[in-house]
Design goal:
This protein is about 30% helix and about 35% strand. The strands form two sheets. It has a four-stranded mixed sheet with strand order 3-4-1-6, with no helix packed on it.
Length: about 140
């Protein structure tokens, strides 16, 4: 019985060391913003029949479309993002989210941000906040 405990401890230690020594490499994504683009951008990832993202070296490359929306079958769970050509404004409100199954398997995700001046970004955020309040309090008409 003693040797079984020793074997279990040895295997547990081996597994801890072997998994702890692995360095997860960060996925890089380059977001190219076209001159004159101003507004919201949303990248939907993990969409079944959408085209995959292009890769340039070790980085995925995303070009912001004029309508600010892009869909891809590629799913990046925690990319390191770099912006190119944001000369007409700054990037504000950057967020990434990954949606998983109940057992933690990533299935879809989104990257969102706003390009423009701080004043434009704050105005856009105020619009979102007001529409959320309307939905919360205005879902059911009075007397229904």
């Amino acid at each position: 019985m003693n040797w079984k405990k020793g074997l279990i401890l040895f295997l547990a230690g081996f597994l801890a060391l072997s998994t702890g020594c692995k360095h997860a490499s960060k996925t890089n994504i380059i977001v190219e913003i076209p001159p004159g683009f101003n507004g919201n951008f949303q990248l939907e990832m993990g969409v079944k029949d959408a085209p995959p993202l292009m890769k340039q070296g070790d980085a995925y490359v995303v070009t912001v479309s004029r309508d600010g929306k892009l869909t891809t079958s590629t799913l990046l769970t925690n990319p390191q993002t770099q912006f190119r050509n944001a000369s007409d404004g700054s990037v504000w409100g950057y967020s990434q989210s990954v949606f998983t199954t109940g057992d933690g398997i990533p299935v879809t995700g989104k990257i969102q941000f706003f390009v423009g001046t701080k004043k434009d970004y704050e105005a856009e955020e105020n619009k979102k906040n007001h529409s959320r309040e309307f939905l919360e309090f205005g879902e059911y008409p009075a007397g229904a």
